[in-house]
Write a structure and sequence with these properties.
Strand order of the largest sheet: 1-2
Structural class: alpha+beta
Order of helices and strands: HEEHEEHHHHHEEH
Shape: elongated
Number of helices: 8
Radius of gyration: 23 Å
Largest sheet: 2 strands, antiparallel
Mean pLDDT: 84
Distance between the termini: 49 Å
Strand content: 15-25%
Length: 194
């Protein structure tokens, strides 16, 4: 990250790229959606993703300062998608009055009660946000095995080692000639045992 980069330059450069969103549902398999960057902000682009890829009406407001990032996401749940647009119009209109200062400084309950003063607000127990990746050495070995021995050997001919990088967490797994030889020998041996 280059701290001298101003926000306008960063936003402009992002508009030339793609937005990848990883969804990790509790009881389903994780999946990733990739869409073109749309709009003039990260929030607009995420809204576009949910509207077109997930078919869920979504609004998002983001705020940052030197030490904090905060967001407010409104989303019509799939089982409510057939309800009238009046409710959606109402909650998004009130949501659009949120300020960056409120997002960064107010407790969740206070913020929601201010925005939706005439509506019933129900808060759920908060869950901590954690970063967790399912990559592993074994999965990286499987990826090399799927490439096939010939292709892996060709890579090793051109380089001293192969580096498999997880696209989610950037963890690198290094395979030199000895590790590759062991990998294919062990996989061949495992197949014979099956």
């Amino acid at each position: 990250f280059d701290p001298s980069l101003v926000q306008e330059e960063l936003t402009h450069s992002l508009q030339q790229g793609l937005l990848c969103i990883t969804i990790d549902p509790v009881e389903k398999k994780r999946y990733q959606g990739t869409v073109e960057w749309k709009g003039h902000s990260l929030a607009h682009s995420i809204e576009h993703y949910f509207r077109h890829s997930e078919q869920l009406p979504t609004r998002l407001w983001l705020a940052t300062n030197e030490s904090t990032a905060a967001g407010f996401l409104l989303q019509l749940m799939p089982d409510q998608a057939d309800e009238s647009n009046a409710l959606w119009e109402h909650i998004t209109h009130l949501g659009s009055t949120v300020t960056s200062d409120e997002l960064l400084n107010l407790e969740d309950e206070t913020l929601l009660k201010r925005l939706y003063v005439e509506d019933e607000v129900r808060l759920f127990k908060p869950q901590s946000v954690i970063f967790k990746c399912t990559c592993s050495l074994k999965r990286s070995e499987n990826a090399l095995h799927l490439l096939g021995r010939d292709e892996v050997e060709q890579e090793l001919h051109d380089k001293q080692k192969i580096i498999v990088t997880c696209e989610f967490c950037s963890q690198e797994y290094h395979f030199d000639r000895a590790k590759v030889e062991n990998l294919f020998k062990n996989m061949h041996h495992s197949k014979k045992l099956q």
